[in-house]
Amino acid sequence: DKVLTELIEPYELRAAKLREFLEDVKPSLQYDIVPLVDPYGPSVTDPDLQCLVVSEETRRGGEAVNKKRLENGLPELALYEIFLMKDPDHRQNEEEKISSSSLRQRLLGTLLRPPRQDPALPSCPYVIGLTGGTGSGKTSIAKLLGQLGAFLIDADKLGHAVYVPGGPAYERVVAAFGAEILNEDGTINRKVLGAKVFGNQERLKSLTDIVWPEMARMVTEQIGEADAQG
């Protein structure tokens, strides 16, 4: 139930750091590093264990281990409790203790590794596509990117622009779906048009075959404009 599990370091790296720490503390120390595949690990089955180091937070876990050991016919472990170190610089939304969860939150928005150089990608302009359902945050992310200097292309606005009288798709859409999709002022009534294509894959394809290439062309033009602006 850890937060941001995607940012947890892989087991091999964590084990290597632990090994480095143990060797630094006492080079002659003998130890086994064992991956835990359940909450107990070898603590409830290893008869040679004598002590379990717990923290203020995990003492109840240590008591659960001893209960399980007794059920397995093994002697209880001595529980050695250590105190948690406080993080004097923790933020309001972070834990008061020094915590890997807080560290992972601070990693958000930083580069974990240098961007991979892909020779197939043009050096400029770099195009980022924002997709997602309603309320997924596209507008907020676009606004942040705009504040960082990105040139924003709003596909929704382009989608509206192709339908306006004189727009690149206007005549063909009217020809394909009839004058009944028009308002009194000659603009396309998108609700009426939507009702015509809703649930009809063939009609929907007819519409997208007209509209999407024009939108793609307009996007390409705007990318060119962004490139010209640097």
What does this structure look like?
With 230 residues, the protein is mainly alpha-helical. The protein has two domains: 5-107, HUPs (Rossmann fold), CATH 3.40.50.620; 138-229, P-loop containing nucleotide triphosphate hydrolases (Rossmann fold, 3-Layer(aba) Sandwich). The chain contains eight helices and two strands; from the N terminus they run αβαβαααααα. It has helices spanning 11-25, 59-71, 100-107, 138-147, 155-161, 170-177, 190-197, 201-229; strands spanning 51-55, 78-82. The protein has a two-stranded parallel sheet with strand order 1-2. It is elongated, with a radius of gyration of 31 Å. The mean pLDDT is 90. Keywords: ATP-binding, Nucleotide-binding. This is COASY synthase. GO terms for molecular function: ATP binding; dephospho-CoA kinase activity. It comes from Nyctibius bracteatus.
Compact summary:
InterPro entries: Depp_CoAkinase, P-loop_NTPase, Rossmann-like_a/b/a_fold. The protein has 230 residues and is mostly helical.
How many E-type strands? 2
Shape: elongated
Mean pLDDT: 90
At the first level of CATH, the class of the largest domain is Alpha Beta
Percent strand equals under 5%
